């Protein structure tokens, strides 16, 4: 493996591009971004289904160091978010560092040389540090449905939308009622002959207060940046104030639940349908979804709701667990992603010769959501227990970038060939504290089974606190939580590269 870089970043979505910008702002240009696809964008590249949009306000769902005064709507659609990420790559000079169509096939820690050996579909390299930013919403989850292989029509997942297949005039079955499905159903309902929605569990849905951002607002944000910052700050502050209801006092969510029930009543006049759409669990236990056209779409005469999961497929007939049958020409699976069993974990082999998947077989855990015991100089962005139930993940990503930056500074201070290995005791202590706090949250007490939970029923996905608290806890690396590893014989110093400092300023994209 001839080529060596100081840092290898895996993935070119929000996490990977953010890591790359932060590296340049730290004066580090000896890095590469390994991306399996043919363009940047991550989940906002992969998810291009009809109606795809973000449920976090645009001015909060963007990097603080790359504000966009020209967001067209209060809640942006997928094309605008993807275009924003393309501009980030251009504005901060990241293109020379990005290697497209380089899917990581394996990463193995070399304990003698204290570096990572990385095999990709485009070649091999080594790196002192790996920053894994593959994201939890990158690998679609398809259920094993008996008879599905014999279905004569079209089958695809929402994150792998087939734009060459025309749904117009077709009988379409949508399986799942998560965030993707509630956007797809209203988008395709006007064009299909019949739409059948298979619902295992109804979601709580609140109205989506989306609107076009006026030209005057955009002008103001360009000319007076403090107005843009104030808008972002207000959006952030409101969500911070909501956190305690989710994490400490779920009983306070009753008012929001009443508003969600009123949202059903406004659009659904059929009492039987309304009953099927009303969840039996506390609001917030599963992710609260935003839509103002989902319920009206379900009220259409040619749209059928099957309040049961898909059990089997018999030719072109889909059979639900309650026996309901429906014929379909196409099946769209909105069945989520591998979140608590990320496939990248099978490709990472640590200091003990074990894969990260094996290390996490009893549940994912990482120190401050970033580093795992037994995997020196490896960290993840959007790691275990860094997800959010009500705010912007970009806030959490930026906090982890702070941690990454200080991690690299500590390696610089150590000098020579050195590595930092998270102490098992520190990882265990952090995880116990997080899980203890999780016990009183709505995600644990709300009476639902969500994708936040792993196979053991533990919530290894969500952060049980505010984004402000997480930022404080990840501002710097506590060296007491790490063991310093030194290579035997020879030195290979890390000379800080300051060539990227020109990219360190705030950029409007």
Automatic annotation (TrEMBL):
Pfam families, sorted: Pyr_redox_3
InterPro entries in the record: FAD-bind_Monooxygenase_sf, FAD/NAD-bd_sf
Residues spanning the membrane: none
Region (Disordered): 489-509
The family this protein is said to belong to: Belongs to the FAD-binding monooxygenase family.
Molecular function, one GO term: oxidoreductase activity, acting on paired donors, with incorporation or reduction of molecular oxygen, NAD(P)H as one donor, and incorporation of one atom of oxygen
Function: Catalyzes a Baeyer-Villiger oxidation reaction, i.e. the insertion of an oxygen atom into a carbon-carbon bond adjacent to a carbonyl, which converts ketones to esters or lactones using NADPH and/or NADH as an electron donor. Thus, can convert bicyclo[3.2.0]hept-2-en-6-one into the oxidative lactone products 2-oxabicyclo[3.3.0]oct-6-en-3-one and 3-oxabicyclo[3.3.0]oct-6-en-2-one. Is also able to catalyze the sulfoxidation of methyl phenyl sulfide (thioanisole).
Obligatory cofactor(s): FAD
Name of the molecule in the record: Baeyer-Villiger monooxygenase
Compositional bias segments (type: Low complexity): 499-509
């Amino acid at each position: 493996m001839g080529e060596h870089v100081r840092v290898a970043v895996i993935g070119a979505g929000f996490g990977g591009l953010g890591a790359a910008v932060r590296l340049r702002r730290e004066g580090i240009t000896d890095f590469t971004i390994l991306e399996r696809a043919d363009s940047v964008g991550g989940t906002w590249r992969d998810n291009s289904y009809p109606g795809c949009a973000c449920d976090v306000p645009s001015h909060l769902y963007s990097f603080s160091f790359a504000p966009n005064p020209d967001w067209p709507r209060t809640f942006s659609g997928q094309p605008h978010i993807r275009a924003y990420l393309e501009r980030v790559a251009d504005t901060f000079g990241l293109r020379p560092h990005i290697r497209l169509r380089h899917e990581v096939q394996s990463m193995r820690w070399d304990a003698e040389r204290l570096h990572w050996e990385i095999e990709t579909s485009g070649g091999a390299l080594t790196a002192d540090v790996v920053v894994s930013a593959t994201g939890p919403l990158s690998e679609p989850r398809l259920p094993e449905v008996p008879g599905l292989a014999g279905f004569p029509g079209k089958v695809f997942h929402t994150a792998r939308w087939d734009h060459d297949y025309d749904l117009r005039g077709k009988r379409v079955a949508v399986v799942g009622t998560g965030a993707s499905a509630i956007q797809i159903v209203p988008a395709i309902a006007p064009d299909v002959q019949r739409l059948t929605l298979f619902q295992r569990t109804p979601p709580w849905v609140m109205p989506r207060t989306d609107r076009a951002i006026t030209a005057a607002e955009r002008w103001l944000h360009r000319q007076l940046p403090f107005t843009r910052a104030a808008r972002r700050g207000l959006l952030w502050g409101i969500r911070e104030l909501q956190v305690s209801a989710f994490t400490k006092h779920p009983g306070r969510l009753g008012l929001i639940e009443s508003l969600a029930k009123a949202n059903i009543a406004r659009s659904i006049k059929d009492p039987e349908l309304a009953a099927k759409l009303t969840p039996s669990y506390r609001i917030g236990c599963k992710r609260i979804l935003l839509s103002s056209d989902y319920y009206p779409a379900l009220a259409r005469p040619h749209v059928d709701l099957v309040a049961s999961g898909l059990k089997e497929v018999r030719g072109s007939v889909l059979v639900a667990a309650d026996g309901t049958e429906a014929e379909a020409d196409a099946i769209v699976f909105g069945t989520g992603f591998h979140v608590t069993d990320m496939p990248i974990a099978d490709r990472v082999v640590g200091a003990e010769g074990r894969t990260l998947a094996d290390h996490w077989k009893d549940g994912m855990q990482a120190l401050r959501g970033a580093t795992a015991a037994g995997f020196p100089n490896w960290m993840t962005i959007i790691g275990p227990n860094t997800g959010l139930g009500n705010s912007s993940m970009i806030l959490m990503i930026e906090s982890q970038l702070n941690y990454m930056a200080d991690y690299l500074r500590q390696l610089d201070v150590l000098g020579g060939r050195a590595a930092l290995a998270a102490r098992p005791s520190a990882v265990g202590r952090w995880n116990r504290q997080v899980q203890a706090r999780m016990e009183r949250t709505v995600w644990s007490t709300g009476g639902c089974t969500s994708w936040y939970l792993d196979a053991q029923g533990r919530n290894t996905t969500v952060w049980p606190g505010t984004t402000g608290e997480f930022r404080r806890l990840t501002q710097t690396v506590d060296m007491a939580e790490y063991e310093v590893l030194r290579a035997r014989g020879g030195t290979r110093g890390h000379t800080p590269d300051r060539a990227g400092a020109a990219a360190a300023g705030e950029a409007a994209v």
